[in-house]
């Protein structure tokens, strides 16, 4: 029996696809229903309207190394567009070569997260954006000093004024965070092969990936990695090999939060290695095996690991458009 | 009386421009003859054929931070496309936040230089490219280790093989240097306003810039800043405020080379501040004044400084096309 969702979904497919594709089914409808394709834009907060001017300013600021105290580290240093908007090293390297405690999360689709950072210490991208600028092991900059540097440039004065036209003194921390957040909300990968599959293109992913999808559901991975962005935005306790990181406990001080981390997105996980909060796991196969052991108490056999890995690769979308801005 | 060059030049202008523009003259032909527009490509060395495959590989390598020992510093860190392919800080910041002795030269039009680095210690881009990778204060990487890291990636194996199809073991230092050089030879700015002016568009630069061109010639700036890339590729002694750098002496050990530096290009000088070998000079006006004093023994008055500065801004071209590569 079809539920309402299925009817709507089938209707959508009929409208979108050729007749033969619309009628196609691979017998996995029940599984596919458990997932959602990624929307093209994340939810936009009422307090930060998404304007072109803000996005353009945020794009400039994202690539601006002079808001770091060394003058050479920008957001794009660790969230490198050449490297899946992350850095592909175990733990972030920042000011004076200091190595942080955690693996850099990609900013791709980060607008879909309900909590930012591994420990969820900020609720949204606006607040998140100001953290790494000030963190001693990252950009190591005093926010006030960063704003002063920006204000020295006529072009930043103009761009901030254009983005915040009603404000007398728009170069401030709130607007810095807003513009960076607005830009990051454009960095989404909505058309991954798996999204096309969910929208009715039965051949968009391989048979092996489909088997992986089935294993992903049947083994319960989907309990935490769920929804359009493959995360419940909740905190779960895990201590991966080599990690002594207390996780969310650092934020709340509550005993029950020890070693808890926010479930990371699995979108683009194929291009955002290495894995785990400490980045100690190099391959996706290894990561799948560890998650089976640590979170599900299961020893996946090799075919299962390979299938789930193939499925995870189908979550890699096209990298979003952006420009390397010409900075003043 | 017209010389052969003028006739050819006028003919070119007739072919390229509307009749009125071709006949236009601003009475400064004698000055214009002293300059050359920048070709679209620099001289290509016989030993490094410029192929698409090499350029593509070089583009990848230019943005590849994993050939640095920290894993986060690439060529593009200091030669940042967002910042005129330089870094806009006085002296380069490299491995573990170490500050080098010299200001980062832009890579724009660097294929036109006859000697690389401030002290000319390498003759070409092939040899230049391998320096910063290994320098302790820059990427601090052993070349062998860099090559090993690249060889770990199947995609680099494929790309090196495609660029060097007849070689059995193409991931080597020579090819690394060649590919980076080939890519950098695409980073040119041939259509600056001043080039368009030289090619016959009399309105491409302002009256003030034309006055600056006249002052640039009449005061002898052109003696060293000459040719299409505004440098004689020779070494001249200068000790700017705050610098104790021995310059070319470091390379040759010869007394007469003390404090000598290769004449830097003036192309894109408007977007590659700060200035001088130690980057201690922030504005172009100040740089022009210092060069007048130190190199020409003249105190330029303010209008002259402003005119020369306007002229120098006309040497800023459109930034070249490139792609931020998706790295493996």
UniProtKB/TrEMBL annotation, chains A, B:
Cytochrome c domain ranges (all copies): 207-316
InterPro entries in the cross-refs: Cyt_c-like_dom, Cyt_c-like_dom_sf, Cytochrome_c_Peroxidase/MauG, Di-haem_cyt_c_peroxidsae, MauG/Cytc_peroxidase
GO molecular function, one term: electron transfer activity
Note accompanying the cofactor annotation: Binds 2 heme groups.
Presence of the UniProt keyword Metal-binding in the record: yes
Residues noted as binding heme c 2 in the record, renumbered to the chain: 221, 224-225, 291
GO CC terms, sorted: periplasmic space
Protein name (database record): Cytochrome c biogenesis protein CcsA
Organism: Vreelandella aquamarina
């Amino acid at each position: 029996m079809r539920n309402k969702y299925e009817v709507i979904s089938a209707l959508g497919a009929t409208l979108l696809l050729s007749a033969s594709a619309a009628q196609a089914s691979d017998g996995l409808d029940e599984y596919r229903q458990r997932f959602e394709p990624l929307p093209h834009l994340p939810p936009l907060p009422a307090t930060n309207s998404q304007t072109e001017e803000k996005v353009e300013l945020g794009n400039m600021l994202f690539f601006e190394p002079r808001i770091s105290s060394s003058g050479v580290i920008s957001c794009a240093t660790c969230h490198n567009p050449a490297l899946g908007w992350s850095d592909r090293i175990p733990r972030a390297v920042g000011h004076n070569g200091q190595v942080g405690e955690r693996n850099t999360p990609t900013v791709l689709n980060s607008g879909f997260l309900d909590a930012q950072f591994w420990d969820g210490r900020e609720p949204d991208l606006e607040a998140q954006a100001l953290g790494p600028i000030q963190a001693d092991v990252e950009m190591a900059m005093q926010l006030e000093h960063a704003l002063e540097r920006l204000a020295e440039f006529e072009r930043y004065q103009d761009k901030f004024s254009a983005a915040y036209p009603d404000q007398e003194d728009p170069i401030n921390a709130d607007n810095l965070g807003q513009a960076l957040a607005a830009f990051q909300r454009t960095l989404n990968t909505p058309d991954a092969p798996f999204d096309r599959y969910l929208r009715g293109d039965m051949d968009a992913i391989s048979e092996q990936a489909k088997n992986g999808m089935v294993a992903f559901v049947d083994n319960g991975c989907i309990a935490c990695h769920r929804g359009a962005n493959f995360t419940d935005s909740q905190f779960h306790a895990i201590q991966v090999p080599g990690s002594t990181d207390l996780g969310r406990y650092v934020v709340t001080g509550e005993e029950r939060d020890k070693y808890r981390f926010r479930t990371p997105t699995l979108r683009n996980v194929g291009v955002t290695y290495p894995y785990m909060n400490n980045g100690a796991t190099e391959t996706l196969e290894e990561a799948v095996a560890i998650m089976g052991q640590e979170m599900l108490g299961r020893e996946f056999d090799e075919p299962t690991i390979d299938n789930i890995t193939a499925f995870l690769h189908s979550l890699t979308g096209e990298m979003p458009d952006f420009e390397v801005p010409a900075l003043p």
